[in-house]
Amino acid sequence: MNSEYKYEHILEDEDRHLILKLVLRGTKADLIAEWYGLTSSFIKAKFQKEYNAKGIDIGFKSEPYYKDEMDYGNTNISYNMNELSKQELKFYNEYRDTLF
């Protein structure tokens, strides 16, 4: 069974609308084809050319931001008074009593 037949007669309206949304969001044709049992060339011909949509790949970060998983969301920020700018020191000295 070819992709055109499957798209027109097997998939439901909801699936066809979702495929269009995925294409417009930039999901790669290979992934969409795999999820719905279609060919990527069919997806490209049917949607990407018509809507001028292209799949994007933003990559990924290979190193974690934190070494310990429990540090995520930790907001204990510490400052050294020697690292503050003149404006920050002035603000700190003027509003020290109202800040804490």
Compact description:
The chain is mainly alpha-helical and 100 residues long. The chain has helices spanning 3-10, 13-25, 29-36, 40-51, 86-99. Helix content is 55%, strand content 0%.
General description of the model:
The chain has helices at residues 3-10, 13-25, 29-36, 40-51, 86-99. It is an all-alpha fold and 100 residues long. The chain has a domain at 3-51. Helix 3 (29-36) crosses helix 4 (40-51).
Shape descriptor: elongated
Average of the residue pLDDT scores:
78
| Strand proportion | under 5%
Q: How are helices and strands ordered from N to C? A: HHHHH
Helix count equals 5
Largest sheet: none
- The number of E-state strands comes to 0
- Indicate the low-confidence ranges by residue numbers: none
Q: What is the gyration radius calculated from CA atoms? A: 26 Å
Given helix and strand content, the structural type is mainly alpha
Share of helix, binned: 55-70%
What is the CA–CA distance across the termini?
71 Å
